Amino acid sequence: MKQNIILRKNSKNVNATIQLTGSKSECNRALVIEALSEGRVKVTNVSDAADAVLLAGILRSELSGVGGQNSEPTTQNSQLTTVNIGPAGTAMRFLTAYYAISGEEVILTGSERMKQRPIGILVDALCALGANIDYEEQDGYPPLNIKGGFEQKTDLISIQGNISSQYITALLLIAARLPNGLKLQIEGELTSRPYVEMTLSMLQQAGIQHQWEDNIISIAPQEFAETSIWVEPDWSAASYWYAIAALSDEAELFLPGLTSYSLQGDSVIGEIMANFGITSQFKDGGVYLKKEPKPIVRKVFDMIKCPDLAQTVVVVCAALGHEATFTGLETLKIKETDRIAALQNELGKMGVKLIEKGLVYKLDCREKFIPQKMKIATYEDHRMAMAFAPLALIIPELEVEEAQVVEKSYPAFWTDLEKAGFEVEAP
């Protein structure tokens, strides 16, 4: 059900302890590992993000041999199952690889937006390996008819390094289950390296060894260990609390469970927000955030390794009138929405422009103003809702459209804002 909310914050001081859900990025990888290991690997602290809950339901039903709530027989063939992943992009990519080697035939589909998100690079790579996959509608896009009968044709696949890291991760996750293993050759610069390193580290936790020499990642066929993987709290979710701290007058926040040695690339938010006077102190089994007065010096932010932080950092800069330049935003146009256009539209409501010049984006805050009321469209994008929510610290009445979109990655977000002293109510 679509629901708007209004946010208010009478005081610009924030003091709270916020227990974040498990990392969506880690959890999705761990769930695929659990399924590929046929249950030898157990996942704990599963994220309550809608995407992770959906993926867990599908994969754990595969383990038990019972169809999940998102699976149903097609009308054409009672033996052929349709798996609908809705708007979950990670699930689409990971399940494409999982089902490609599973031996069963499924139709893998999603929301209308998902049918506009390209997947041809991954499908081409899987078919080159030996998968049998057809497009049900438009070439290069879901839905997919993933057929059984995988017979490995080669163990060497070449893939561009500047594509979505989820394509690379999907291939690495299934590598140990391939009869001849996988040698993945990365062409050009690997833009989302932290996400690939996360995948390899989690595979290593599960007993899967790899070699990375020059631009080739090699994984031999091998068995998963009997072990467990604990999912760390979500640094992407933590980024919104860093933003809240940055826009506050005074902030003291404690986020339990987060570590300074995280696998998550988005843990770099601590380093980024240090530019805005936010200190991160790791103790007592978590991280303490504190606001300290500091002039903003940094002018250029390269988001290539942490694209999911881009909206958060752009909005903070805009709110503070800091005319920063951003690079590494290439993937934002093919996310849940065109995030560049969405940012331009919503920042325009407070007189800020995000100017695109090739692959470089610059904030123009010369006409910035603080409205008494502002309504934010979310474009069916969870990160738009959460990136703009901290503006309630400087805008007296902030209305967020379709507030339920946060369920995709951080269902408790609005409740947690209330714990931090925000008023959250229906319009």
From TrEMBL:
Main location: cytoplasm
GO cellular component: cytoplasm
UniProt binding sites for 3-phosphoshikimate: K24, S25, R29, S164, S165, Q166, S192, D308, K335
Top-level taxon of the source organism: Bacteria
Keywords: Amino-acid biosynthesis, Aromatic amino acid biosynthesis, Cytoplasm, Transferase
Endpoints of the signal sequence: none
Every Enolpyruvate transferase domain range: 10-417
Gene Ontology terms, MF aspect: 3-phosphoshikimate 1-carboxyvinyltransferase activity
Subcellular location: Cytoplasm
Keyword Amino-acid biosynthesis among record annotations: yes
InterPro entries documented for this protein: Enolpyruvate_Tfrase_dom (IPR001986), Enolpyruvate_Tfrase_sf (IPR036968), EPSP_synthase (IPR006264), EPSP_synthase_CS (IPR023193), RNA3'P_cycl/enolpyr_Trfase_a/b (IPR013792)
Pathway: Metabolic intermediate biosynthesis; chorismate biosynthesis; chorismate from D-erythrose 4-phosphate and phosphoenolpyruvate: step 6/7
Binding site for phosphoenolpyruvate: K24, G89, R117, Q166, R339, R383, K408
CDD domains found in the cross-reference section: EPSP_synthase
Biological role stated in the UniProt entry: Catalyzes the transfer of the enolpyruvyl moiety of phosphoenolpyruvate (PEP) to the 5-hydroxyl of shikimate-3-phosphate (S3P) to produce enolpyruvyl shikimate-3-phosphate and inorganic phosphate.
Subunit note: Monomer.
Entry protein name: 3-phosphoshikimate 1-carboxyvinyltransferase
Lineage start: Bacteria, Pseudomonadati, Bacteroidota, Sphingobacteriia, Sphingobacteriales
